[in-house]
Amino acid sequence: AKIAGVGAVVIMAGCCWRMCAALALVCLLTQGGAAKPRKFSSEQARRDEAMRLFDLAQAYGQKGMLKESADTLEEVALIAEDNPDAQNHAGMAHLQAGNLADAKKRWRKCVELEPNHATARFNLATVTAELGDLHEATAMMEGIVRDVPEADNFKTLAILLFKQDLHEASIRNFERCVQARPDHADCYCGMGNSLIKIGRDSEALAAYDEAVKVNPNEPGYLNNVGNLLVRHHRFNTTAQKYAIEVLSRAIALDGTYADGYFNLGEALSAVSLHSDAVDKIRAAMALDPSRIDYRCTLNLDLRKLCDWAEFDQYSRDLDAMWRNGVPPEMARTSKAVSTRKPGEAKSRVRDKEPSLCPNPLDALSYPLSLPSILNIASAHGEVSRRFVAQSAGAGALGALGGAQLGPTGRIRVGYVSIELRDRPVGKDMVHALSTLPRERVEIKCFSLNPSPREGVQGGDTLMWHRKMVDACDGNFFDVSGVSYSAAAARINEERPNILINLDGWTSAPLINEIFILQASPIQLNFKGFAGTLGIPEVHGLVSDRVVTPPEYQTFYTERFVMMPGSYHYNGHDHLYPQVHTGGMKLPPLREVAGGKFSMHQAARPTELLSERAGAGGGVLACNFNQFYKFVPEYWGVWMALLRDHPSTLLWFLSWNVAGRDSLLRHGESNRVPRDRFEFTTFFHEDSHVLAKGVCDLFLDANPYSSHGTAADALYTGVPLLTAPAETMASRVATSLTHSSNQGSTLTARNIDDYKALASTLLSSPKRLRALRRSTLDAGPMDQTRAFNSRVWSEGFTTALSMLWDAFSASQLASSEHMHVVSSGAPPPPSYT
User: Fold this and answer.
1) Which of 791, 783, 795 shows the shortest CA–CA distance to 825?
2) pLDDT in tens, 394-404
3) pTM for the full model?
4) Who contacts 4 (Cβ-Cβ below 8 Å, separation ≥6)?
């Protein structure tokens, strides 16, 4: 017998199955047998009738009349009900006709008659899987591999285990497959799929590479390599360029490969080629219109291009879909594993559950209601929780290590992130960790990113790595390259009393699964993701009264851990001490305009600020957010302000050329000429805050407000106008302004108030500059709660101590014991 691929039924080698069936039928009819359900006048009559029926079934099959063929072979099986081959071939016919239950019945009868019938045993296992009983199918395949330890049998068993998220067992059987047949590309590929599921990315990439070596012309193998690089090495430009190369080869080999086009679009987006990305994702949608996740990604890339043609309708659709829970079209679940019928070509259509869309991070940038935001996060969280339950199981870590303080009496606080290096979160946390009082807390850092190596990574990367190791007091643990359960176990060994998730639903794969395993009695969400994780195992959200008003608690699965000032630690007093040393001195406009602070030495005129900006009594307004944060509603307000105030210019960073050109076209369509806009390249890290400080008024975005860029503006006293909505992500800039010298002066209640406040300021540049002077005269900005690391550290440490005291008193980490307001919290604002 020959096994025809993944999940395929067995067909006889050397002839078509109908011919083989005829030969077997002749044999069985000469064998006689026990009493039959039909009576015949003679043995010859029985044989003649069976052959007549078989010829009729074959004729039906040749005409494509599969049901009639199956019904006729079912009658043959009844005539020879004690013969295993008759049952087997009836099962094959039922499978062809789509009658899976009847196929299973006939193959089960065949195995009852002949327990060692290899073809029927295999077919019975695969059809059982397709009917959704993976447990029974797995038991059948385990028996088969014991009796017939062949490569394809190991592969089929491994696939069944993979479908149940039993990845360690799946990997072992894929390994047995390649041991039995070292050139089995499908098994290398399947092994990579299982490895990546549990976070062993480097091993997964090696397995995919082996599959490509065996068969370099299989698009599916190339797609897997590219997909891994896109998902797990998004910020590595070299990796993305290689992903583009292999994915381009994949679609060149198969122009109908929807996933290949989609992943290529993702890789192009990662290197800011958003126009090309949109083209590839649209091609994927044309090939497979059913894929909801394609549409989600398309809309995000369109926003990076400032193409808003579908934005308003898509936003309304998302909110309507998610307001009351998981949309029905995304809630379908099935345990079935599809099989490949005899003669069918290998399919590259992904066999997966419907994708949840959008992901929680993308959702924050749409004007969605709090119930929708919560439902999106909770749905993704529940998928992760089911995965953990199936792949690791309850009690996977054994005894909880951090239930008691250590001998020093200090609270052991662990930080988990993929960004504990030269990334924005990592740079901030270097200084946040350095300020924490070591007599009260012990720091442990767990990196999901491989540690940089001398001679491989650049000098800045190595410098920030050394700073991070020092900030962690040497307690820096590289837990990358292992399964998420192994990472959780390693964290548990260090016995953290409190464990902090710095990434949430951002860029770190499987970080939330680590927290679901609960490697610490108290687990918090902080810094990287401005919203609820939707995961009950994460007990608290570090926030403040402005960014998460207490009355919004219902829409968060975590309890609020309130900081006395802004929760958003930024480290500016350490990162940019020169700004407020000896009094802040902004650089002359001509130096900024001349490119002195630009990253690109050979910057073109379109990448430099013109000297006319802010000259002649005008106002230079600005927003330094990425383009995907811009929405048509607020863009319309900005354009109205430019029309009403002819001496005002609007300054952006040029995140990508296509997006910049789209904004210029949007301006023209709003009767605002191109010379009213300034687009500049990026500035050097050590001077970018001062360079941006020549801006006169920062116009915040909504519904995803400015976070780090708001801190940049406020630090040099730039007045910041913001209009918080309900979500945490929309209120971060407000939190920072309230904790700085600016206070609530420029906090608008709604978009109309936002426009009115902006218009008032733009009408009187003198008033605007007086406001900035009064903000700076109120005291050094680096001494305010928004920027003083020591003050932030005191509030944060107090919050951690309160959390531990509450846990120690009850030994419970459930949410009702976690609502904490750190000392010194200001009264809540008079609006929400």
Assistant:
1) 795
2) 566 766 777 88
3) 0.84
4) 10, 11, 340, 342
